[in-house]
Amino acid sequence: MENEGIKTRSGFGRLAAALVLRLLCVLLVTLVLLVGALYGVMYILAKGPSETARDLFVMSVRETSAVGFLADLYLSPEEIAQIEAGREAEEFAATDTSLIHMDTQADPTTEADAWGFVDEDGDGIILDEVKGEGYSGYMMIVLDPSRVILGFDPDSLGVRGYTVEEMVQLRDAVGGINAGGFVDIGGQGDGSWPEDAVVYEGTVYAGGMGVGEGFVGMDDQNILHVGLPSIQAIQDANIQYGCSFGPVLVSNGKGVDPDSLASGVNPRTAIGQRSDGAMLLLVIDGRQVISLGATFEDLMNIMLRYGAVNASNMDGGSSTLMYYEGAYVNNCASVIGIRRISTSWIVLKEGARDSAGN
Predict the structure, then answer these.
(1) What is the pLDDT of residues 182-225, one digit of tens each?
(2) pLDDT tens digits along 117-141
(3) CB 165 within 8 A of CB 323
(4) Hey, where are the domains in the chain?
(5) pTM for this entry
(6) CA 258, CA 251: separation in Å to the nearest integer?
(7) Distance between CA atoms of 282 and 129, rounded to whole angstroms?
(8) Do residues 176 and 343 touch, judged by C-beta distance below 8 A?
(9) Assuming Cys at both sites, which of 148, 196, 251, 288 could form a disulfide with 212, CB separation 3.0 to 4.6 Å?
């Protein structure tokens, strides 16, 4: 009887091992089929008859640090360079500050403003859901522009970065979005060093890094400037808070030439300002079934719809996040979790700058 029990257990063991082996084989075959199908889809996008689909695929993957190599699987460096050369940086006229009239705001708690929004809870912030073809996200409208400053810690430069949540909490603020880019070699950056120049409380940091595609910043009158081309231009405009990225989306009340905004579809972040001074903070989710992402042209059209006189794209992709009232509003696209970054645009509590003597 004892031998029979041993044989029975041995038989069950062999059966279990066989079942596990079959399951692993099924999973392996499924994985191979999925990879093969994905490779085939990308091949069709890159080599198929549609140049529009090819360009969109190339620019979408090339805008990311993690999967930019996918374009190299199908196209030569010369072909990729030709596609990317389709978007050339524009030069913009200096920001016309006379277009911003901060004394024209209606009473936001009792009547709709010129764009149809009402601050129902009276906290000076309106959060509106944004939807379009293939994308969704959120627009935060901050009625008092003096409440929006750059979240940046000079003492942490080269030491550590901060998540949007950490920076909001560090400044005892109520919300914020990610801002400029950061040094991110191989997708392993710790957010401790900005990719280009930063201005915090009127002081330029990392000025030797230049301004990238253009600088966006708030001056001493709480007016947003976009497309500043140099450190000298930043100083001439008396910028108090700002960072580099781009491209510019709206300049002096006009959307930029769509031909200069060729891009892929990805998570996006942008900042803008209305003619009444209200600040527009935008995030668009991406790399999800329900929201693939947006192009730069999509961002421009959204900003114009919300009344932006000036607006600029900020760092996107896995950095795109909006934090408000103790929680993230949108979905993080990063597969490794929420990342630390160098700069954020944060929204202070009402009267915070007045009480601080600023």
Answers:
(1) 998 777 788 999 999 999 999 999 988 889 888 999 999 999 99
(2) 999 999 999 999 999 999 999 999 9
(3) yes
(4) 2-84, 97-355
(5) 0.83
(6) 13
(7) 10
(8) no
(9) 196
